[in-house]
């Protein structure tokens, strides 16, 4: 255990990429201990990515890239301005609401920060907000990406923990609302403290238009249900509903109805059993292509090709981490390291609430140093047996782990959202870190609420019959 973990930590301190550090320390352990033939390294790494749920990873990444180049981010921003821009500290609220909507399509915090963040930070600076405040609220709202479904970390966790990815997606809905409310309350606090006004004049026509878009989107599943109750098949009802929606959207030229439909289609399709979470990722790509090529006509073959190559690059790095982490996690198990760590934690406490507090501290610490995918792959084999022994629902624990790791993305030394926003805002990493610090308060308060009120996570999956 010391050789495996010690080698990994030494390589990390030397600045070796996390995936290479895990693979190299795993190979060193195998060669020195002789616990298994060295060819096992390749076999286990290949086995680590031979998983149907992992097919969702490249498709969700591609969907996020396509949404960015299709101009959907600009339309989401315009919709959010109409909805909440008139409030005090308006563009701060716009930033958060925009992230909520984009979260229903991309599933990643980095796509949110890089896509919407570019638009939002520039707009906030043009309206007189400080760069630090603009960066802070953008960073905090980007954490919503993997909490509100769909979510790439949920896919990885569901695969590792052998729990329903659909249940994890549904479990993220209410915690996402809680996070949103805490962040909007923080914007309101800063607005009153600094005596900020609104950023756009209050306009009944604009607000009514935004409200009408929400009504149109929410009426879609109701209309489908009514048609099914009237005797039409589900497929025919969906075709009629989508056709009607397209006509309404074209006639009124709504800014974000079709973008708002993405999470409705994905969650609705999974709930009704039309497709699995993995197939939902393909549906997200098809919907993105439809918006960019047909509805908005903002895509070209060149931009689609660029999004595809960007996706290949990102997917390769993510899956390389998964392959390296899979052999590392397997060796932690066969070397009894995971069992030793599990026994040690159980010797400290058998109270599940105390364990959750300790787990939060551990995952927060790990999230500051290790990539989200690698952290999930390493920590799940160690912590899940304890979670099950103490009677903690693994879906609830999945939300806790993901939120902790999202907060870790905002911290040096390896916080990717931190580095993306530092580049977008042209700030030093040090100034960006200081700008994010106040936003850790609402994030930590939301983490405490989600940790110690399990029903925030479990009520919806139980209601939909996806959890006991």
Automatic annotation (TrEMBL):
Note the Pfam families from the entry: DctM (PF06808)
The superkingdom listed in its UniProt entry is: Bacteria
Q: Which residues form a coiled coil?
A: none
Q: Which GO terms describe its molecular function?
A: transmembrane transporter activity
Q: Chief location of this protein?
A: membrane
User: Which segments constitute the TRAP C4-dicarboxylate transport system permease DctM subunit domain?
Assistant: 5-456
A GO cellular-component term linked to this record = plasma membrane
- Locate the transmembrane regions by residue number: 47-67, 165-190, 210-228, 234-252, 264-294, 314-332, 353-383, 395-422, 434-453
- Tell me the function of this protein: Part of the tripartite ATP-independent periplasmic (TRAP) transport system.
Q: Mind telling me what this protein is named?
A: ABC transporter permease
- Which species? Bradyrhizobium nanningense
């Amino acid at each position: 255990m010391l050789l495996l973990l010690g080698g990994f930590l030494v390589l990390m301190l030397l600045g070796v990429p996390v995936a290479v550090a895990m693979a190299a320390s795993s190979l060193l352990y195998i060669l020195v201990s002789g616990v298994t033939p060295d060819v096992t390294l390749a076999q286990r790494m290949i086995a680590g990515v031979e998983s149907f749920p992992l097919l969702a990873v490249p498709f969700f990444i591609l969907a996020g890239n396509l949404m960015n180049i299709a101009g959907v981010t600009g339309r989401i921003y315009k919709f959010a301005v109409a909805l909440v821009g008139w409030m005090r500290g308006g563009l701060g609220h716009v930033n958060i609401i925009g992230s909520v909507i984009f979260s229903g399509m991309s599933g990643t915090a980095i796509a949110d920060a890089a896509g919407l963040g570019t638009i939002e930070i520039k707009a906030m600076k043009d309206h007189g907000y400080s760069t630090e405040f603009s960066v802070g609220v953008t960073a905090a709202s980007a954490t919503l990406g993997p909490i509100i479904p769909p979510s790439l970390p949920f896919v990885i966790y569901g695969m590792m923990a052998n729990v329903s990815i659909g249940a994890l997606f549904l479990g993220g809905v209410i915690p996402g609302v809680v996070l949103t409310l805490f962040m909007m309350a923080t914007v309101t606090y800063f607005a009153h403290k600094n005596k900020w006004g609104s950023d756009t004049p209050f306009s009944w026509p604009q607000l009514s238009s935004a409200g009408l878009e929400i009504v149109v989107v929410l009426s879609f599943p109701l209309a489908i249900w009514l048609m099914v109750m009237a005797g039409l098949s589900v497929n025919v009802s969906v075709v009629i509903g989508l056709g009607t929606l397209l006509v309404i959207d074209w006639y009124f030229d709504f800014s974000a109805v079709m973008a708002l439909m993405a999470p409705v289609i994905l969650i609705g399709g999974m709930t009704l059993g039309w497709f699995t979470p993995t197939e939902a990722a393909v549906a997200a790509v098809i919907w993105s292509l439809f918006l960019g090529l047909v509805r908005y006509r903002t895509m070209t073959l060149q931009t689609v090709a660029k999004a595809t190559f960007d996706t290949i690059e990102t997917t390769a790095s993510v899956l390389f981490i998964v392959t390296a982490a899979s052999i590392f996690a397997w060796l932690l198990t066969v070397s009894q390291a995971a069992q030793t760590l599990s026994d040690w934690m159980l010797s400290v406490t058998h109270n599940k609430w105390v364990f959750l507090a300790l787990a939060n501290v551990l995952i927060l610490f790990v999230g500051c140093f290790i990539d989200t995918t690698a952290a999930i792959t390493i920590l799940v084999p160690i912590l899940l047996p304890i979670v099950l022994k103490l009677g903690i629902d693994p879906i609830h624990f999945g939300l806790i782990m993901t939120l902790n790791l999202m907060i870790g993305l905002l911290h040096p030394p390896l916080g990717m959202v931190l580095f993306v926003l530092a580049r977008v805002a042209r700030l030093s990493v040090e100034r960006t870190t200081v700008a994010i610090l106040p936003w850790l308060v609402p994030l930590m308060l939301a983490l405490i609420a989600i940790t110690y009120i399990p029903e925030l996570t479990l009520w919806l999956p139980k209601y939909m019959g996806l959890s006991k």
